[in-house]
């Protein structure tokens, strides 16, 4: 499993594609948070990273599918998947190796965003105005969100041999699972809106962003992650 993880991790950074993907993610965040007026955190007048945590899930909808879209399509196209099947590796180890490598890449892309925390804290009036509890909870929510999005991206890539199709499918399903149920809850009748909203990722992400780690939110994200990885394992197992 770790051999697969190392191979995928090195392969992602073996060309400019990996670096460009991360740079574009950070550039988009920077432009929205410090340049564009609709999300500019400097216009708030007080120290907060709320806009960053509101914006990040939607940018991750593009970043994570870009990271995962080639994981299995490239293997099928190059014929290296058959070689992996002949190695002493289980299907679960192959899937987990690719999953961990992709998740590490996404976490590396998130690390530079900690500079936003340092910058806003330094610019605040007394240097202690930030709600650290809420920020820590929001970052934990982002970690769980990244884990779920990455699992969905890998699952979608296992169903097609075309990287572009894999990108579109994973971006679509991530968007539906994140925002779709929130939109549907507004159409549902009274008494059902809360139940429908609870089915979406956004509800549980917002809950974690309050700084309170609720076991129900953790179980929700873990369930989606494990379920999609299980589907991926079954899909690759059938191919094997």
Description of the molecule:
This protein is mainly α. The chain has one domain (2-25, 47-239). The chain contains 12 helices and no strands. It has helices spanning 2-12, 16-34, 50-68, 73-78, 80-86, 91-110, 114-123, 132-157, 163-187, 193-198, 201-209, 215-239. Helix 1 (2-12) crosses helix 6 (91-110), helix 2 (16-34) packs antiparallel against helix 3 (50-68) and helix 8 (132-157) packs parallel to helix 12 (215-239). The longest helix is centred in the middle third of the chain and has 26 residues, at 132-157. It is globular.
Give the gist of this structure:
This protein is mainly alpha-helical.
Helical segment count: 12
Beta-strand segment tally: 0
What is the H/E order?
Answer: HHHHHHHHHHHH
The domain tally reads 1
Mean pLDDT: 83
Distance between the termini: 17 Å
User: Beta-strand percentage?
Assistant: under 5%
Q: Give the % helix.
A: over 70%
Radius of gyration: 19 Å
Please identify the structural class as seen in this structure: mainly alpha
Shape: globular
Layout of helices and strands:
Blueprint: H1 2-12, H2 16-34, H3 50-68, H4 73-78, H5 80-86, H6 91-110, H7 114-123, H8 132-157, H9 163-187, H10 193-198, H11 201-209, H12 215-239
């Amino acid at each position: 499993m770790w051999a697969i993880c190392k191979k995928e991790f090195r392969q992602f950074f073996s060309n400019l594609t990996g670096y460009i993907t991360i740079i574009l993610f950070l550039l988009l965040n920077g432009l929205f948070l410090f340049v564009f007026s609709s999300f500019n955190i400097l216009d708030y007048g007080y120290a907060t990273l709320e806009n960053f945590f509101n914006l990040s899930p939607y940018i991750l909808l593009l970043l994570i599918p870009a990271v995962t879209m080639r994981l299995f399509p490239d293997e099928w196209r190059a014929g290296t998947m058959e070689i992996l099947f002949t190695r002493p590796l289980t299907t679960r180890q192959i899937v987990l190796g690719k999953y961990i490598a992709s998740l590490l890449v996404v976490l590396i892309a998130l690390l530079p965003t900690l500079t936003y925390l340092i910058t806003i804290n330094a610019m605040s009036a007394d240097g202690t105005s930030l709600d650290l509890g809420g920020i820590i909870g929001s970052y934990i929510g982002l970690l769980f969100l990244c884990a779920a999005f990455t699992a969905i991206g890998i699952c979608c890539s296992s169903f097609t041999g075309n990287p572009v199709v894999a990108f579109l499918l994973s971006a679509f399903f991530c968007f539906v699972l994140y925002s779709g149920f929130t939109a549907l809850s507004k159409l549902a009748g009274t008494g059902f809106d809360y139940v429908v909203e609870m089915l979406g990722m956004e509800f549980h992400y917002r809950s974690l962003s309050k700084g309170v780690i609720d076991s129900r939110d953790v179980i929700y994200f873990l369930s989606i992650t494990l379920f999609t990885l299980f589907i991926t394992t079954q899909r690759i197992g059938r191919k094997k």
